[in-house]
Amino acid sequence: MDSDTTVLAKATFAGGCFWCTEAYFERLKGVETVISGYSGGKKGNPSYQEVSNGKSEHAEAVQVYYDSTQISYQELLEVFFATHDPTTLNRQGPDYGKQYRSIVFYRTPHEKQLTEQYIKQLEDAGTYKNAIVTYVQPFKRFWPAEGYHQDYYKNNPDDPYVVSVARPKVRKFEDSYRDKLKPEYVR
């Protein structure tokens, strides 16, 4: 981590492969650092192998460190729900398994309330064809993933998964959220 995260607010989300989720959030103005990791399971300090084979019960997640004077928790929720399919249980695109489930890990009663209200708003508006299956769970613990997972999208531009799955999604995100992007990500 390059910045001092002790003065920043934190939000933790699981929305499929953390390589994509990390790439979305790190592009936003007001977001200082995004860490890929694991949350929502029982085993302490799980490895990628343990998470991938379902033995730890964790989900691939990201921890977002942000300046709440520049971007709100509500705005982070809106990005989270817009950048993955919250109606598919244990699956995002080609990735399937419990480690790819959709979860908002709230830290405060207010975050829980905002999340539940936003889900209701999306459902009432008929935003999705199917019901939202995103879990809303209290935050307990976040375990950073192995170093090679951090900034994976940026550091591995030629990886076949990045080229075929992540890049099209990140480009679509950049086009849709141009006004919320850090200047270096505006194309």
UniProtKB/TrEMBL annotation:
EC number, UniProt record: 1.8.4.11
GO MF, any single term: peptide-methionine (S)-S-oxide reductase activity
InterPro entries for the chain: Met_Sox_Rdtase_MsrA_dom, Met_Sox_Rdtase_MsrA_sf
SUPFAM superfamilies (UniProt xref): Peptide methionine sulfoxide reductase
Domain Peptide methionine sulphoxide reductase MsrA: from-to ranges: 10-161
Known role: Has an important function as a repair enzyme for proteins that have been inactivated by oxidation. Catalyzes the reversible oxidation-reduction of methionine sulfoxide in proteins to methionine.
Descriptive protein name: Peptide methionine sulfoxide reductase MsrA
Organism of derivation: Pontibacter korlensis
Lineage per the UniProt record: Bacteria, Pseudomonadati, Bacteroidota, Cytophagia, Cytophagales
The encoding gene: msrA
